[in-house]
Design a protein that fits this description.
The structure holds two protein chains of two kinds. Chain A is an alpha+beta fold. Chain A has nine helices and six strands; from the N terminus they run αβααββαβαααββαα. Chain A folds into two domains: 59 residues; 118 residues, Orthogonal Bundle (Arc Repressor Mutant, subunit A), CATH 1.10.10. In chain A, 56% of the residues lie in helices and 12% in strands. In chain A, helix 5 packs across helix 7. The radius of gyration of chain B is 55 Å and the shape is elongated. In chain B, the strands form two sheets. A three-stranded antiparallel β-sheet of chain B has the order 1-3-2. In chain B, a hairpin with a 4-residue loop joins strand 2 and strand 3. Helix content of chain B is 59%, strand content 6%. The longest helix of chain B is centred in the middle third of the chain and has 41 residues. Chain B contains 15 helices and six strands. The chains are: A alpha+beta, B mainly alpha.
Chain lengths: 207, 409
Amino acid sequence: MFDRLLKRLLQGEFICEVSDEASFRYLLDPENATQVDAFLTRLDYRLSSTQNQLAFYAAYRTIDSSARSDIRKVFQQFRTELQPVVEWLDMMMSCLNQDTALSPGDTLSFSSLLQVIEQNQALADRLQIFAKFKDFTSSDDSVKGRLEKLLSTLEKWKYLTLANRDMLIYQVTGKLDYFYQALQFIQEHEQIPVEQGETDVIQESLF
Amino acid sequence: MSQSQQGLERLFKALASYSELVAEAYFTGVVYKDNQNQRALNQLKQLKVLVNHDADGYRIAGRLTQFLDSALSSDRVRRLDTDLAGWIETLEQQISLYQDAEVENRVGDCDNYFAEIERLVFDLSDTLEENTRYLSMLVNSRFANVRTLSEKQKQNAFYISRLEKLVNAITALQPESLLEMVEDQPHIYDLLDQQLIRKLPIYQQRLQDILDTLKVFLFELRQIEARAQLVQGFAFFLQQNQNYQPQDWSERDNIPEHWNQIKPLALLAYADPLDHALEEELIGIAQKISIDTDVMLAKQKQRLLSAVSLSPQNKKTLDLPLYRKQLRVYFDRVLKYENQPISAVAFQQAFVDDIEPSIWLSCVLNEWLRRQQSNKRLLMELVPADVGQRFSGNKKVTDIMLKYRKADA
């Protein structure tokens, strides 16, 4: 367990309940987490987690020029992912007829999504928008081809994992928690106007 | 007959067969095991008609008692789910009535009040057990199984109201004052202590677990809601500002924690041009190539253009290779002497010095094949070697005889 887990962390992967349940549960035990952190410390890394502890990953202990250069690359990748992932999350709310955004652990069925999009031209048009992003261009111009490309790219970016290969059921990974955290940060620090509704007040009263 | 129909029939048959035992348990509060009723009691327990009273005795299950109270229009009818706290009050009243009857030495009333107290205690215990267990099960399994925020909010309200009732009931149960009240009635004291008071910590713990779970869910619900707004708001913002790029937070002195993530330790034989993280590095490499490489720096030669000229071009005579000259001499000789076979090897030995016989034979063969297409009179005969590998598919020759057949008259 320990070696497999460390290898995945060193490969820059997010360890979450969806992507690797056994490793994730292992890390939830504070004693195990301390051991992993101690090992990473020898490489001047440390064990870090997303704000809701839904995913673990390795971070730099000391941010020197070399680490800064690597972090710059991570940030660069985030910049690339920002627009398509937000668009995907927003589109999924419409597809699933939900007023809640996707969360780690949620499942997406390829066939159900395809059926919904094929029956709704507005959603099919939204799917076409993804073609403007470099990593989402598909040689297959059909709705099915575009949806395949969308989900496979998100799988490649580790936001999704293929939970059932036969039924083509994808599951949202803990990396989304990381994405939300970064999105929240940008919204707060760059004052992106995001309207806050009245439901917040209702929720307060439920406590 | 379906399985549930069979179950129902079995239940009714058992109730009919053992009606006396059930009635005894209802009216006296408890029925004890003996040699004759053991099998019947076990069956009724399996069917959840009876539950354990103590080590040897059985009582009617709380729900069935309520049904019988209701069916018999008993004054004991209570609305368990709605007024648990009211029960505690009734229990206290019954204890007071029992104590009064005891003081006044009304033995019959004492028995009746005790039976009622016993029933109340068991009902309370059963209800708390059932409700806390059921709520705990719901919270752990079905809480998040809704799709919309409004459904989640309704669900929250439902759980919170049920939780409130249970908390009120447990709060109303003041164990110390209740036990103090029955200090002089040891059998009631034991009953309260064993069936209710000792179980309270279990219910309290269960309620605490439910509350903790609800807190997490409510927290997540608030987060999910905030996330939905964040996503929708951001999506709208990005649609309005298509060229938006976030500030370069990786260049700040204090890099935000979430972007502090290590670069994967991976070895690849080639760079992935789709990997945006490598984009700058690849650009750097490409720029380096254009600056540093001599080949790129060298001035390119101007290409020569094939000029079209009307003046006659100077003809260049290309020298034939020596072996072709010698082949031509050999073939001229063959053509000159009609019907006379001329050995290629003999010619080679006489006139060709610097070509191996085997190569010479190969050249002759090729030339014959080329000429034979236009000149069918040129005949060839192979002189096979005496020894050769049989069945090898190869033919080994020692000489080639060429003959120019005389034209037919």
